[in-house]
Amino acid sequence: MQKTTDDDFAAALQRASDAATPAAELTRLAESTDNAILGALALNDATPQDVLNKLAALGNKELDVALGKRGMTRLHPTAIISPRARLGRNVVVGPYTIIHDNVVIGDGTVIESHCVIGHATPATAGEPLLIGESSLIRSHSVFYEGWTFGARLVTGHRVTVREHTRAGSHFQIGTLGDIQGHCRIGDHVRFHSNVHIGQHSEIGSYVWIFPYVVLTNDPHPPSDTMMAVVIEDFAAIATMSIILPGVRVKKGALVGAHSSVAHDVEEDTVVAGSPAKFICETSKLKLKDGSGASAYPWRRHFHRGYPEEVVAAWLKEFS
To answer: For the chain, where are the alpha helices, taking DSSP H only?
Structure first.
């Protein structure tokens, strides 16, 4: 790279900042090693997009701040992005990620390395993949066409999400999560790692699904019969449980760890075991913090990561 000397620094900085500077000169100035000049280029509305992409690829935190201020989409030079894809402002796409044609990505979204976004098959039927604003998709994840996500989706690594599903805002999918498609998922749903969601599952809002849980759909495999599992609002499914086809886990229920659930679970009750059986009302479970307070409904005391207005409504509910 060409080193800008002390004598011409001020002039170079002025040219890098000036919207009237020719594009060829701005491109030449991008060879500078001086962060002030590069930062001025990053903020200059006249700087060509290929120069901005080059600045973004440097991995310089100061430049990233400058580029972020102008709402620039930052694309790693090794990423492959269809010209038909629609990317919002201030989107970041990492190394070796592929973004296909039929994709719309909201403002402020970060997609890390080695992801495949908008994979198409005959089953996707040409429906777009819509990713809401301020989302984070971590490395090695694969998303098919035909999905709609609300704002602030967050994934772990190596997530697979198939077609024809709708999910609300603030959806979290843990590492190695596998969603087989044709599902409906509400707001503020949290999946931990290694969760498998069978086709046609219906999941309400504020649901917790913990590691290694499986929601099934075939009552006599292998067959073409599909019976959806339904998980209602505020339910929690503990680690390594299996919910069998056609089961409804009702509002606020808790399925204990290592359970095999073949029958509906009533509202605000606990079931556990294989086969799962009724244990007690959820209100009978106490917090193990010495307070003696009921652990359920969990929204009475657990508020981390939820919006202030939602927490305020919960506090009012239990006041």
So the answer is: 9-17, 23-29, 35-43, 49-57, 61-69, 308-317
Residues 219 and 238: beta-carbon distance below 8 Å: no
Residue 208 lies in a domain: no
CB of 144 closer than 8 Å to CB of 118: yes
d(CA 255, CA 265): 8
Q: For 147, list phi and psi in degrees, rounded to 5.
A: -120, 150
Per-residue tokens: 100: 């296909």
Closest CA to 152 of 107, 183, 198: 107
Q: Which residue has the tokens 């069998």?
A: 244
Angle ∠(113,56,130) on CA atoms, nearest 5:
50
Assigned domain for 48 exists: yes
Q: Which structure tokens are listed for 171? A: 């959806």
- pLDDT for 176-192, tens place per residue? 999 999 999 999 999 99
Asked if the bond preceding 275 is cis, omega within 30° of 0, the reply is: yes
On whether residue 280 sits in a domain, the answer given is: no
Query: Count of domains in the chain?
Result: 1
Angstrom distance (rounded) from CA 297 to CA 287: 11
**Within a domain: residue 187?**
no
For the stretch 44-79, pLDDT in tens is: 888 887 788 778 777 677 777 777 666 666 778 899
**Run of H or E residues at 110:** strand 110-111
Q: Which domain holds residue 12?
A: 1-72
Cα–Cα distance measured from residue 239 to residue 251, given in angstroms and rounded to the nearest whole number: 19
Nearest-angstrom CA–CA distance, 149 and 131: 5
pTM of the entire predicted model: 0.79
Query: Which positions ≥6 away from 13 have C-beta within 8 Å?
Result: 36, 37, 40
